């Protein structure tokens, strides 16, 4: 039986060029920053547009996703 991948629109990148990539979680305010060359980060593609998150923001996103997956497993009795 083939297994379907549900996380097709999420990946990890480490850019080589140093153009400004704003962190989607920290666009404004004191924590505003850019993801630069060599910075490993999480990319989530929504409507064909890549949205980038720094590692601390990515950790929060992945924690929520893990909770959602755990709930689904529980609902399925797995």
Can you lay out the helices and strands and say which pair or pack?
Elements: E1 10-13, E2 21-22, E3 34-35, E4 41-46, E5 49-53, H1 55-76
Antiparallel strand pairs: 1-4, 2-3, 4-5
- Rounded mean pLDDT is 91
Outline the biggest β-sheet. Answer: 3 strands, antiparallel
Distance between the termini: 18 Å
Rounded to an integer in angstroms, the radius of gyration calculated over CA atoms is 15 Å
Strand numbers in spatial order across the main sheet = 1-4-5
Number of strands: 5
Strand content bin:
15-25%
- How many independent structural domains? 1
Q: Which residues sit in consecutive blocks of at least 5 with pLDDT less than 50?
A: none
In sequence order, what are the helices and strands, one letter per element? EEEEEH
The secondary-structure class comes to alpha+beta
| Helical residue percent band | 25-40%
Q: Which descriptor suits the 3D outline?
A: elongated
Number of helices: 1
Walk me through this protein's architecture.
This protein is an alpha+beta fold. It has one domain (10-76). 28% of the residues lie in helices and 24% in strands. The protein contains 1 helix and 5 strands, in the order βββββα. It has one helix at residues 55-76, and strands at 10-13, 21-22, 34-35, 41-46, 49-53. The protein has a 3-stranded antiparallel beta sheet with strand order 1-4-5. A two-stranded antiparallel ribbon has the order 2-3. A hairpin with a 2-residue loop joins strand 4 and strand 5 (49-53). The longest helix has 22 residues, at 55-76. The radius of gyration is 15 Å and the shape is elongated.
């Amino acid at each position: 039986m083939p297994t379907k991948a549900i996380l097709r629109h999420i990946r990890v990148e480490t850019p080589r060029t140093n153009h400004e990539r704003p962190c989607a979680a920290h666009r404004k305010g004191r924590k505003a920053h850019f993801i630069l060359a060599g910075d490993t980060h999480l990319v989530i593609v929504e409507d064909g547009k890549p949205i980038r998150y720094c590692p601390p923001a990515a950790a929060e996103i992945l924690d929520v996703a893990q909770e959602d997956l755990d709930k689904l497993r529980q609902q399925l009795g797995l």
